[in-house]
Amino acid sequence: MAARQGAHASLPLFAYVVVRHALREVGEGDRVLADYVASILLHFGLGGRATRISNADDETYSTLAELSGAAESGDAARSLLVRAHLGNYALWISGVFPDYIEMRRWRRGGPDLEYYEEMGRRGFTLAADHRLAAEHGLTALFATAAERFPVLRQALNNISDALLFPDHHSPEKLMRQVRMEGKWMLS
Fold first, then answer.
1. How is residue 148 annotated by DSSP?
2. Which of 43, 88, 132, 139 is buried deepest, with most CB atoms within 10 A?
3. How many CB atoms lie within 10 A of CB 76?
4. Which residue has the higher pLDDT, 120 or 169?
């Protein structure tokens, strides 16, 4: 960020470096996870990709409940994509937009960040258990993402707070940061 050469880096490289650095700050050194989380950050930031299980899919999902309901599809490939997307979408929303979640929770009674963590873990666990994940060598990645979901979310929260929304200050953001700081101090 401070070096002039950083301005010449490609967006994928920049995203990877930012995510890798954020993950290392919260104690996660797995490079494969850094690459995976960076790809979620990049791809879900593109128009409409966060609500679709693939670029070519016509169906959109706007809630985790919709994705959860579609996880048991008769089409094995679609089932794996939906399960992985459940984890990806929960990580994207709770990682990049935690203050939006907290605001909805306090003002409209929406689900809290723990719900998103639970659903994200569930999605990655279901994806890891899918037979096609084993065939394509994705079981370990999805299982690790499920196990370390809170750490991945915290790293994305830190990126969101520092780079995406640095000037946003709200009681919800402050309370979230205090809760997370306390959570990390206990563990």
1. T
2. 88
3. 12
4. 120
The C-alpha atoms of residue 62 and residue 74 are separated, in whole angstroms, by 21
Residues 160/102, Cβ–Cβ less than 8 Å: no
8 Å CB contact between 101 and 112: yes
Distance of CA 123 to CAs 64, 90, 153, 165, Å? 9, 9, 14, 27
For 22-61, letters b (16+ CB in 10 Å) and e give: bbeebebebeebbebbbebbbebeeeebbbbbeeeeeeeb
Q: What is the pTM (predicted TM-score) of this model?
A: 0.86
Buried b (16+ CB within 10 A) or exposed e, 116-152: bbebbbbbbbbbbebeebeeeebbebbbbbbebbbbb
Q: Where are the alpha helices (DSSP H) in the chain?
A: 11-25, 31-44, 64-70, 76-96, 98-108, 113-129, 131-135, 139-147, 149-159, 171-186
Question: What region, left, alpha or beta, does residue 155 occupy, with left being phi > 0 and alpha being psi -120 to 50 degrees?
Answer: alpha
Q: Are 94 and 158 in contact (CB under 8 A)?
A: no
- Segment 79-89 shows an average pLDDT of 96
Q: How confident is the model at residue 2 (pLDDT cuts 50, 70, 90)?
A: low
